[in-house]
What does this fold into?
Amino acid sequence: MNNLNRFVLSLSLLSLHTQAEQDLIDIDFEELMKIEVTSVSKKNEKLSKAAAAIYVVTEDEIRRSGATNIPEALFLVPGVDVTKIDANKWAIAIRGFNGRFSNKLLVLIDGRSIYTPTSSGVYWENLNYLMSDISRIEVIRGPGATLWGTNAVNGVINIITKASSGKEGEINASLGNQYKGIGVKQGGEIGDSTKFRVYVNSKKQEETQDLQGFDQDNAGQYLQTGVRFDIEPGNGQWLTLQGDLYKHQLRQQFSVSNYSSPYTSTIESDDVDLMGANLSLLWGIKTSIDSELNIRTSVDFYEHNDLQFNEMRDTFNIDIEYQFMPFIDHSLIWGAGYRVSRNEIDGSDSFTISSSTETTQIWNLFLQDTWKIPQKDLSLTFGAKIEGNSYSRTEIQPNIRLSWLVSENVTLWSAISRAIRIPSQVENDSMINIQVIAPSAFDPTGTPFLLQLIGNNQFESEELTAYEIGYRWFPSPQLSFDITAFYNQYENLLSYDIGDAEIKSINGNTFYVIPINLDNNTEGYSYGAEWLTSWQVTPRTRLRFSYSYLDINLEDTQPNIYSNDVISLSVDRSLQHQASIWASTDLSESIELDLRFYYTSSRSWERSSGDQYISDSVDGDLRIAWQISPSLNLSIVGQHLLHDDNQQFITESSSTDSLIERSIFFNALYRW
Amino acid sequence: MSFLFNINAAISDENKISSLKVAYIYNIAKFTRWPPSTWDKTDAPFFLCAYGNDDVSNELNVLMNKKIDTHPISVVKVKSDEDYQHCNAIYISTDERNIYRYLLSKIDLQLVLTITDQNQYFKYGGFINLIEENKRLRFQVSNQQLSTTKLVLSSKLLKLSILVDN
It folds into this structure.
């Protein structure tokens, strides 16, 4: 009886319908099948109504960009600053603070956080996945701390790989002036319920040039393999077991301080040996159509050996998440997580750490409710996360988001959120010799100076309060606009605090040591806007325009002569303006053409020992692909085509700057 | 005559495409026979269920009270798990694999006609999937379902379909 009532109720929802709809229904089926349709790709409802600045890099976009690795797939994502430091290293950031170890960004692969507690950054060069295994990359600009967790301050990058179909079979080979690679994968099935795939991916990255145009000794050889099992035990459950194993052998140039006369730093090349493995298990169950439980555990190991330090790190992680609808129109999600990570680190002349073995722990609890108010076309999301860690006090990170469906084609949203970036091991406990300065001619003792960065075990979490507003408009199925503006207020950011100079013996020599103690005295704000327009000009041609603007203003509340070194490092190395046009067209059923042009504004680093500057630039990428048969695809990809070479980023002082050369490669992909 | 002229022109508006899809769903159901034991009365309703919130599921209401054989169609947006067993046919729209598989587990696939629209998870099961091919709307029929179902698809329907292994 109860069920019948529900059915009767639905009768009253009978909507008015047009004559045209009725007409179609009365046409004979064979006639219907003659009607020509030219559709646009399905609009993702969730995305168009989300109360956050979110962009999803689709499988199509990854393919059409010609990306050979994850940083390249993120290149030109609106509001994301992706730059190549040298042959192997990347700097990636959202809403500023770019650097080799951008620490206000959370990066996940299938839910596994890949940031390292050592520096709070990401070793992008460790990742060498097959691009065709990636299903999509979700990029969230702005804080995502409540749901996502540690480090999700200025953005979240969530890389999601495909479930195994069991039918994969592919070989993929590339040959070019900067890049050579080969990858193979094979899928299979075990019984009815288990599908798997294995892959191997190997590549060689050629060396870049120094600023004078001489080849650097920094080529890289990469090898990665992995496996993914997707198991369906039935009863609405799923189980995924996946793991990867890699060994990369890179070369790198370092800027090495000279601790004896003439005290000028020299450039030395050395091996960078990277090795790592990870294993994750995800178990999930649908407990009803509206509720779902997921439990994810992972273990992760990496080893990083270079001239400055050798590190081994093991991490264990477990996350539990449950979503359900306790009341009509309320969708709740709660979860808990725990991570323990242990490392062993050996320093060098330039880098020491007081405890060679360190264990860090992070735990969290979160709850978030999304309340849909259908009468008002509103959706209100509010929640908070409590997070504790080994280095600083327990923090609460709340957020509130409102999304308003103004009309069928217009969504307005706004959000206020708080997020923190917890201290890294290096900030907590380390000594880094950043610069040796030759003795003053007026000093009769001839004692040189040494600038030493000193970690601070009182270092606190960096804090952000973010205010965002967004507007999405779909004037037609072919045209869409997505505009976001934000104001970020930062507190407790990293600062340099000068201590008193002392005479000390360092690495066998006597120095006036000038200690630069890490502290949390920087504060300030940033504001900016991101604009994206997508236009499906014809069924075969799509144009995408994006522009983003960013202005960061920080100050040290206890200023000193080195204050600006660290402020400029995060502020001026980030892009103020960024714009791109991406044209995708199918020249025929089997030929794809992609043309991308992009503008980046200048970068600089103003510091006490001299300023560095890179001017603004316009550059372009091209990809032409020919699907010769259902199984064979040939393509040619050109990156940074408008310059023979150019410098994209200014490195931290321990490394050397590089010119990135134009890259062209051919790719052949065969599927069976 | 003028309306024929209208539809012969290419349909490119998203709303009209969903109307066309609704017409397909109606026709597919019309050319399918359910076992006689399905209904105890000749005028008992034919429950056409919908899961999801896309244009097609919102427009299915135009089929209300049209007839499948002698049974008037009742379009139902299913709200709770127990209700799925009442469906005779179900249109499923979701971008979530887990929800799709869960729905399949809640219905008797031998007696329920499932219809999806360009469903990337069709390989996990389901009976009929609308697709676009050569600028025409077509539909795939699962060989696996066909071999186990208690429904009878008319020869006309099978002739128009694309048989696939999923």
